[in-house]
Amino acid sequence: MCDITGRDLTRFFRLWGGFYTPFDDEVDDYGKKRITVTQTQIDRTIADIKAKGYPEVDEKIEYICDANWKVFKNRLPVQPGTATKSGTKITMKGWQNVLLTKFIRMKINVCFKHVFFYSGLFRNR
């Protein structure tokens, strides 16, 4: 993928998890087969990518989802709206071109929705 895009995507692969994790197990995907990925293979792959000198991706591509890919592709500017909270219900009105909602204190990201619920996310103040 890095060769196709001409970019160093190691950050993306690390953030999406699993790509740089040693693995040794049988996988049943169109037939059973054992797959083994060692730490040595992972380290060598990262070193090979870094050695190519590709620029890193500046954009937060890990935030792209089915609901926002056109916003990302077309680099549409955020149009701010309002946010209200009632108990565990959060309502976003008027927002456009938002990739996700990021709750920094809780260290979570939510692909942007106009209304969502999250139990225990906030304390009433």
Characterise this structure.
The model has no long low-confidence stretch (mean pLDDT 81). With 125 residues, the protein is of the alpha+beta class. It folds into 2 domains: 57 residues, no CATH class; 55 residues, no CATH class. Strands 3-4-7 form a 3-stranded antiparallel beta sheet, with no helix packed on it. Strands 1-2 form a two-stranded antiparallel sheet. A two-stranded antiparallel ribbon has the order 5-6. Helices cover 23% and strands 26% of the residues. The radius of gyration is 19 Å and the shape is extended.
What's the total number of strands? 7
pLDDT averaged residue by residue: 81
The residue ranges in which pLDDT falls below 50 over 5 or more consecutive positions are none
| Through-space gap between termini | 47 Å
How much helix, percentage-wise, in residues?
10-25%
Largest sheet: 3 strands, antiparallel
Q: Which class of secondary structure composition applies to the elements?
A: alpha+beta
Give the number of helices: 4
Shape: extended
Strand content: 25-35%
Instruction: Count up the domains.
Output: 2
**SSE string:** HHEEHHEEEEE
Q: Give the oligomeric state of the chains in this entry, treating copies of one chain as homo and distinct chains as hetero.
A: single chain
Strand order of the largest sheet: 3-4-7
The value of Rg in angstroms is 19 Å
